[in-house]
Amino acid sequence: MTCFAVGFAVHMTHSPSVPLTTDPAGHPFVFQTAFNTGSAEILDTVYEPDAVFVRRDGVRVSGAERRAANGGILALGQPIKVMPRQVHVAGDLALLIVDWVIEGHLAATATDVARRGEDGLWRYVIDNPFGIGTP
């Protein structure tokens, strides 16, 4: 993903390796596809640049720390399967409640927030993969 500023707006371009979606209900599946490439760089393209990731211990991280937190889960070397439960949209924001499993390793219900960018594509703003299980 490349970001550049024009005036006060930040414009993002996206690598076509894992296409983003114009449908917020499809964003968890975009995440699944990106995760299952095994590439932290590709996975990071489903996030806004300043997006927050809530680690299992409840600590909120962004930027390089977000990539490292996701990298720890990617290091399991197993695919993820997502099963969206609920999608609630208000304008350019979406609340996503998503069950997910990495067979034999991790399973939880995520509580995530995505935002539609100026390009019409959805990206995570808050990724809380362990949802209410987070302290």
Report on the structure:
- The chain has 135 residues and is α+β, with helices and mostly antiparallel strands.
- The protein has a single domain (2-7, 20-133), classed as Nuclear Transport Factor 2, Chain: A, CATH 3.10.450.50.
- It contains 3 helices and 8 strands, in the order E-E-H-H-E-E-H-E-E-E-E.
- It has helices at residues 27-35, 40-44, 64-74, and strands at 2-6, 9-13, 47-54, 60-61, 81-90, 93-102, 106-116, 122-128.
- A 6-stranded mixed β-sheet has the order 4-3-8-7-6-5.
- The longest helix has 11 residues, at 64-74.
- The model is unreliable at 1-14 (pLDDT under 50).
- It comes from Amycolatopsis decaplanina DSM 44594.
- This is Putative hydrolase.
Summarize the structure.
The protein is of the alpha+beta class. The chain is built from 3 helices and 8 strands; from the N terminus they run E-E-H-H-E-E-H-E-E-E-E.
Q: Which architecture name does CATH use? A: Roll
Domain tally: 1
CATH topology descriptor:
Nuclear Transport Factor 2, Chain: A
Count of distinct strands: 8
Please state roughly what percent of the residues sit in beta strands, choosing from under 5%, 5-15%, 15-25%, 25-35%, 35-45% or over 45%: 35-45%
**How are the strands of the largest sheet arranged?**
4-3-8-7-6-5
Report the span from N to C terminus. Answer: 31 Å
Helical element count?
A: 3
SSE pattern, N- to C-terminal: EEHHEEHEEEE
Please mark out the parts with pLDDT under 50 across 5 or more consecutive residues, or reply none.
1-14
- pLDDT average, as an integer? 89
How much helical structure, as a percent, in the residues? 10-25%
Radius of gyration: 14 Å
- CATH class (first level) name: Alpha Beta
The main sheet comes to: 6 strands, mixed
Protein name: Putative hydrolase
Domain DUF4440: 31-123
Organism: Amycolatopsis decaplanina DSM 44594
Keywords: Hydrolase
